[in-house]
Write a structure and sequence with these properties.
Elements: H1 3-16, H2 19-23, H3 28-50, H4 55-95
Length: 105
Amino acid sequence: MSPQEHEQILYDEQHYQSFSERRFGLSTPKFVVACGFILALLFYLGVLIFGNNSLSVLFQLEEYQSFLAYDIENLKTKNAALQKQYFELKELDSDAQPIDTGVNK
């Protein structure tokens, strides 16, 4: 076999191969299935990262929970101060005696 014939056979074989067979070594149906699987996997990962029940939503909810916990502690402190003030005012009112003007005697 001459080198020209050998090159011709290689050229013919390469010419008849599809793009996926030349580049990736896969037949066209296998290449299409592999691309479909990869796209489905990417879609699934996108939903996991950016969807309604995603990781970013989890982080936002955790941040909101810490904000609410801080707000609860702040409101408890304010409530304690206001209750103290209320009971002090209530005690002052109970100490006050009605003034007897002596009109009804």
